[in-house]
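Issue: ligand-bound run for adenosine monophosphate - logging full I/O for the record.

Environment: standard queue, default settings, no custom constraints.

Inputs:
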Amino acid sequence: MTQFSDLGLAKPLLKALAEKGYKEPTPIQAQAIPVVLQGRDLLGIAQTGTGKTAAFALPILQRLAEDRKPAPRRGFRCLVLSPTRELATQIAENFKAYAVHMGLSVHTIYGGVKYGPQMKALAGGIDVLVATPGRLMDHMAEKSAIVSGTEIFVLDEADQMLDLGFVVPIRKIASQLTKNRQNLFFSATMPSEIGKLAGELLNDPVQVSVAPQATTVERIDQRVLFIEAQRKRPLLAEILAEPGVERTIVFTRTKRGADRVAKYLNAAGIEAASIHGDKTQGQRERALAAFKAGEMRALVATDIAARGIDVNDVSHVINYELPNVPEAYVHRIGRTARKGKDGIAISFCADDERNLLKDIQKATRQTIPAFDRRNDKNLAAAAAVADKLAPPEKYVDPRRADPRNDVPSELRRKRNRNGNRNGGGGQGAQGQAQGRGQGQGQGRGNGQGKPQGQKAAGGGNSFRGPKRPPAPAEKRWSPVD
Ligand code: AMP
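Outputs:
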């Protein structure tokens, strides 16, 4: 088995890794670190949870330390672009932890916070800057950031950048970089637009890949529950009330949806908070801290906000609504079963989401065991109570929902201002969700899944709705099985 010391890493880094308790490199680290140390360009196909951040951060720090020189004023020696603030924070925390014995500076720049402190940090020059594209472009326009001196350029989660409409800003930023730079490009999936961007930005790259495209993490126990759209809330409360469902991330498709679900859960006596692009940085950080500390059982998130959330011991992921894009399913469920642990992913599927389920199963090359919870009288009664606890949401057909709902409002406003609404936003999400009819009850998705080894999950339910007698065994599946 390869050791970190076999990869040519310097002593200060090995010391930091030992202090962090990393014993051996992950596959992406073993493949990528020697390549990056040689100064080669890299195309990494890897998703969050594989250790990809250290795969680029460690050799970058080593290269910067081997050739020590002051960072350019208002500039940076290494620029890492991240699609979201959360991921930017996470990446910077990783860099700082690994650089602890090296004396290199690491800063973040993202929207939603004041410009002043960022300008101050930039003024003197930074060794490693982790930035979201929108705010960096603002600083470039103000000349408070000058990117031309960047020696190493990293694009992380490139496929998510595409979904957020960041491809145009990335091209603009890259056009101002010196040609004589090292480029590292990471993406969980490789849609054609991202392949094209990689072709433009990378120079004779070495490609490393740790999981075939859109392959679902094997340790995750996946289930689909067929359910009427308007009964999803009581079903969610029922699952969250089960013992063993300790730390759950619930995914909704829209920011408003996330707020409504969190509100409902709180009204039902289950501590929960929502996290999405319209929340202030402070609100996001508080919600995340409370979730990490185990003070709340459920974090309700949109896809984009969940990027970069690195919380250990997430026992369950619940897809309250299926994502438009199959790749997002893989990202979502990858929030659980981290660091060698097991995890459970439960997806709610309403009738008009059957086509989305079909796409997911096709892309992940699997049939997800399905259980039918439709026509459950107790859930119907609980849904009536739920409507009183928190007003019902208007149900939006997932395929008609606007993917721009999840674009941070700050960016949306800016795009509108610039008259640049066609800048690639939502192409990925929209393109794959279009042009389907209202398919019903087709193929394997007929709701008659075969539950195995389930136990009656009726008791111990703290939801305030009517008590539900145990359902017939063949129709039930317990989330803690
Ligand atoms: P990432 O894929 O970069 O988001 O990393 C996922 C998690 O794995 C983070 O919490 C890292 O701190 C952790 N990690 C990265 N590399 C290693 C390693 N070699 N050994 C143990 N944990 C690691």
